[in-house]
Design a protein that fits this description.
Two copies of one chain form a homodimer.
Chain A (H helix, E strand, L loop, with lengths): L4 E6 L1 H4 L6 H13 L3 E7 L3 H14 L2 E5 L10 H8 L4 E3 L1 H12 L14 E3 L3 E3 L8 E7 L2 E6 L3 H18 L6 E9 L4 H7 L10 E7 L2 E10 L2 H19 L3 E4 L4 H12 L3 E5 L5 H7 L8 E7 L2 H8 L3 H7 L4 H15 L3 E7 L14 E7 L6 E6 L6 H20 L1
Chain lengths: 416, 416
């Protein structure tokens, strides 16, 4: 069997949909980065029999199995039990784990729980995978030749810390990740996935690099991938195709990889040495939150004002009461006055605004749920506005999210 | 085999971690709500052989298999092919699908893509699962007695719409979901999961209802579950245990089920007929965004001001320059002045503020990354502040998220 990895996430809360499986995403990204092939992910509940069945299937098709979850201090945490039973290894108490947990709890206002002692039991022959930020240690175990198990707690921050500090060096030492897969993801806003796919269709027939389309959060994306021995070698294969796609798609392609609409806008503002202030209504703070998610955003983001109540639009943004009465708060004129008002109040080069109907209530035949106006005031000329009818079906969160993206995209296109 | 469901999500982008698997979460919640047992979730890439292997495994252990993804218009969308090949059914073009897609594209600025025609091919004997909000229809198919396949596109909004409109009525008609599992999730803030688990330990031994703990986003939760024929029957079983847990845990339990810190705060403000305005620094708009995520929040949320630049703190919130110079922008005094300033500027009953160091840069030995002050000004007495040292290891997003929760929790406790 050629070396390949598989992820098994353990937890009834995942099956019940109470939490999102962010661990699979993180591990998938990491395995891709390291060039470790990875073909399956499984989620299984806190059930000893089914957990063992999942292990049996995974052993037959994968040589590296990564578990998350079920290592906690509570009685339904069964991962260690299941693995030890499946490979017929006795559980042995490790005093160094007890000592470590006791030390971690020494400065805590919360006492060491009796349940925590369970976390000191490991299958004979397994190594401790240290957990510096939580109580449950993980384990690294080769229960038989050619099969490696990595077992992590389910808490994402702990798992990620353990992965980076201990597991990545371990995997490299074991010879995993010699020829990594390098991917570049091109990001698009303002063009549907199927139209993008048709526009660039011939690239999907390429063998190296491969190009694949997908859609997420109202954005279309193209992933360009190749397996290479170094980043430079990969870049030489990927760059010409990226250039070709960018030429075909123009301004609809807003960036690549970790770029976001907010980071691209921020980069342009830094280059132009200009600042931005935001006046939000229906997006409720989302534009400010996305802009300030970027480290260093204080270099161009001055601040924002969420003017939810109409009197705040008048008192703090200078929107005219007459305009509110005549055009309504969801209107092009109000969006423009909000943009101009926040620009003047905050003394920024640009003022960006949103006003719309996020629902579920408040829609009318003339102004249905999903109608959003984006206003923009800049250093030159009068303020402008754009209107969008966003698909209302997915609900309030979707409308707010896409409105936020639309506003950032309006600004992005103006800054080009 | 007793009836049980399994989820197979198809897409290399999921394996590569490029998108979060929200479809599994939604389907898990829905299956739980309908009382359909569901023991496994699998993710597999856009690969015909491995997709068929995943189908082979699922057929052996589940009687209802739900697929998402791989129905799109692009060449790497293989789900229909894989299923038809596995069950040896020919693909047949359905003219009604072509007609439907043509009609959907009639009013679009984007032309019907040739790729879209591929979406009209269905295995012989399968029924069309209508997709009102996107181009790719799904399918419902019983390829052999006792095995039902439901196949959805991967776009979450389309899948959810199709699930609710067509599949839920279909499943009920087929006799799925007679005795539903009813769960109630109690939500806690301010107590770690292991301490909560120790405090309420005896409830984990209960047979009916069952109680299980888990942790997410800095919150601990307890899920109380029972299988019952009606909601009233379930409530009678769950309520006494809920009451017992709430008595033991007091104010650390902030709500249940769909409650969030923001919704609970909103509910209390509505009851008290009081309003809130927010001044944010390190949280960058997150508090406003969470408060306005609640429909009807305009009943108590007046607005917020993100004062990122120091001069905005002075000019628009009335923070004293002297205080900024002497105590620094991340300080108890500035948090209090921000809270009082926004309360007075916006004319609200309460003013809530945050100022802190979200990182990755900007930390010092005295004021490390993760230090956050929450300020609160209310109708009575002088403004107060609270400081928190948030675990900086998970990074900027985590610090901002937990700071937002801390601020909402401060307000929640004051409103009790």
């Amino acid at each position: 069997m050629s070396p390949n990895a598989e992820i098994i996430c353990v937890g009834t809360e995942l099956l019940l949909g109470e939490i999102l499986n962010t661990n699979s995403q993180f591990l998938g990204q990491e395995l891709a980065r390291l060039g470790i092939p990875h073909y399956y992910q499984t989620v299984v509940g806190d059930n000893l029999v089914r957990l063992q069945q999942a292990i049996a299937i995974a052993c037959q098709r994968s040589s590296l199995i990564i578990f998350t979850g079920g290592l906690g201090p509570t009685p339904d945490d069964l991962t260690t039990d299941a693995i030890a039973t499946f490979f017929q290894a006795p559980l042995v108490e490790r005093p160094e784990i007890i000592a470590d947990i006791q030390q971690k709890f020494a400065h805590s206002p919360h006492a060491l729980s009796a349940n925590n002692r369970k976390q000191a039991l490991l299958p004979q022959g397994a190594d401790i995978l240290p957990n510096e930020t939580g109580s449950a240690p993980g384990l690294i175990w080769e229960p038989r030749p050619g099969l490696t198990l990595l077992i992590f707690p389910g808490v994402p921050s702990e798992m990620q810390d353990m992965w980076c500090k201990t597991v990545v060096p371990y995997l490299k030492k074991q010879g995993w990740g010699d020829a990594q897969i390098y991917s570049r993801v091109l990001r698009f806003f303002g063009i549907p996935e199927s139209n993008l796919a048709e526009k660039v269709a011939p690239v999907f027939d390429l063998i190296d690099p491969t190009v694949a389309p997908y859609a997420i959060d109202g954005e279309a994306r193209l992933r360009i991938s190749t397996r290479a021995a170094s980043e430079a070698e990969a870049a030489a294969i990927i760059a010409p195709i990226e250039q070709q796609i960018r030429q075909q798609c123009g301004v609809d392609c807003y960036g690549a990889d970790a770029d976001t609409l907010a980071s691209v806008v921020g980069q342009r503002l830094l280059e132009r040495q200009e600042t931005i202030a935001v006046a939000e209504s229906c997006t409720g703070g989302g534009i400010g939150q996305r802009l300030t998610a970027i480290p260093g955003s204080s270099g161009y983001f001055v601040g924002s004002l969420v003017a939810y109540a109409n009197n705040i639009k008048v008192d703090l943004l200078g929107v005219k009461s007459k305009t509110l009465d005549e055009a309504g708060s969801v209107s092009a004129a109000v969006a423009e006055q909000m943009a101009e008002g926040v620009r003047s109040q905050f003394g920024s080069a640009w003022g960006l605004s949103t006003t719309g109907i996020a629902g579920p209530g408040g829609g009318t035949p003339e102004k249905p749920v999903g109608l959003v106006y984006v206003g923009l005031a800049g250093p030159q000329g009068p303020p402008q506005s754009w209107s969008y009818q966003i698909n209302a079906l997915p609900g309030r969160d979707w409308i707010r999210k896409i409105s936020t993206s639309r506003a950032l995209d309006v600004l992005r296109r103006q800054l080009l």
